[in-house]
Amino acid sequence: MTERTPPPPSTLVLWDIDLTLVDYSGLGKLWYDQVALAVLGVELAHVPAFPGRTERSIAVEVLEAHGVEWTEDHVERMFAELVAIAAAARPELPELGRALPGAAAILRALDERADVVQSLVTGNLPQLADYKLAPFGLEHYLDLSVGGYGSLSTDRHELVSAAIRAAEAKYGARFAPGSVVVIGDTPHDVTAALHHGAVAVGVATGRHSAAELADSGAHLVLTDLSDTAAVLAALLGCTGSDVRGGGDQLPSRA
Questions:
Q1: Pick from 68, 86, 172, 202: most CB atoms within 10 A?
Q2: 12 near 181, Cβ under 8 Å?
Q3: Is the pLDDT of residue 13 over 50?
Q4: Residue 60's Cα: distance from chain center in Å?
Q5: Is the dihedral of CA 173, 177, 178, 180 positive or negative?
Q6: Nearest-10 Cα torsion for 165, 170, 172, 178
Q7: Are 151 and 125 within 8 A, CB to CB?
Q8: Angle (deg, nearest 10), helices 72-89 and 126-133
Q9: What is the pLDDT of residues 155-184, one digit of tens each?
Q10: Nearest in space to 17 (alpha carbons), one of 215, 185, 161, 146
Q11: How far is C-alpha 21 from the chain's CA centre?
C-alpha cells in the first residue's frame, strides 16, 4: 500500500523576537556602543530607537548620525562587528535576558501542528536571532532557514515578503495573505503585516500598549502569551481568507 504524501502546511506564523518572545532590554545599546568604538573609533553619541527597527536601518542611522556617509561596506563592517560581539557574549546571554511568559509553551503547541510552519520576521541579523533564542531552547520550534531578517532591508515589510517566499519555496505551499500570521510588539510589526494583507497580531509585552497596537491596525491584540490554550485558539482562529481589522483583545490569564 502506497503511503500518502502529507499535504503541505497551510499556515505560516512569523514571530518577532525582542519583547515578543524574549527580553534583552538594554543589550542593543550596549552592543552598539562597542560597534561604534570598534568600527568608527568613536563613542556612541546618538542612540537610535531599537524597537521594531531592522538592523540595517539602525546601522545606517548610526553611521549618518556620526558623520559617516553610509556605504554597503560600512554597513557590512558594522554587521560583522555586531556578530563578533554577540558571539563573545553568548555565555552570558542566559543571565542578560529572559524568555517571556508563555513563549516556549505557545511555540511548542504550534510546533505540534502539522499544518503550521513557524519562523521569524525580526530586525535582528540571522546570527543574533539564533543567539538570543538558544539560551531558552526557543529555536527548536522555529524554521530559522525561512525567516526574514534585519540585514535584508531598512523596510520591515520586505522582511515579511522574504520570509513568505522562502517558506513557499521550501515547503511547496502557497500561503495566501490570510494564512500568514505576523506577531510582534510594535506598530512596525503590525504595519509590515498589513502591507501584505497578512494577519497582524500585536503582543503588548513591549513598549507599546494594547490600545496603541489596536490603533495601528492589529487584527488581534494579546496582552501577553501566558495563557497557551487561549493564545493558540486566538491565533488559529484569526487565519482565513477574509481578514479584517478590529484589534480584538485577548486578556492574559488571571
A1: 202
A2: yes
A3: yes
A4: 20
A5: positive
A6: -40
A7: yes
A8: 20
A9: 999 999 999 999 999 999 999 999 999 999
A10: 185
A11: 8
CA dihedral over 117, 123, 127, 131, signed as positive or negative? negative
Tell whether pTM > 0.85.
yes
How many residues does the structure list for the chain? 254
pLDDT digits (tens, 9 = 90+) for 25-44: 999 999 999 999 999 999 99
What angle, 0 to 180 degrees and rounded to 10, lies between the N-to-C axes of helices 72-89 and 55-65? 110
**Would you state the pLDDT for residue 239?**
80
Residue 38 amino acid letter? A
pLDDT digits (tens, 9 = 90+) for 208-254: 999 999 999 999 999 999 999 999 999 999 886 444 445 566 554 43
Mean pLDDT computed over every residue of the chain: 93
Q: Which pLDDT tens digit goes with each residue over 184-196?
A: 999 999 999 999 9
d(CA 198, CA 250): 19
Coil, helix or strand at residue 239: coil
Tell me if 207 sits within 8 A of 49, measured CB to CB: no
Q: Looking up cell 484589534, which residue turns up?
A: 247
Report residue 174 as a C-alpha cell: 502557497
E-only strand ranges, the chain:
11-15, 22-23, 98-99, 116-120, 180-184, 199-203, 220-222, 248-250
Residue pair 24/18 in contact by the 8 Å Cβ criterion: yes
Among candidate residues 214, 170, 169, the one with its CA nearest the CA of residue 194 = 214
Check: CB of residue 65 under 8 Å from CB of residue 36. no
Give mean pLDDT, residues 117-136. Answer: 98
In whole angstroms, give the CA distance from residue 119 to residue 125.
Answer: 14
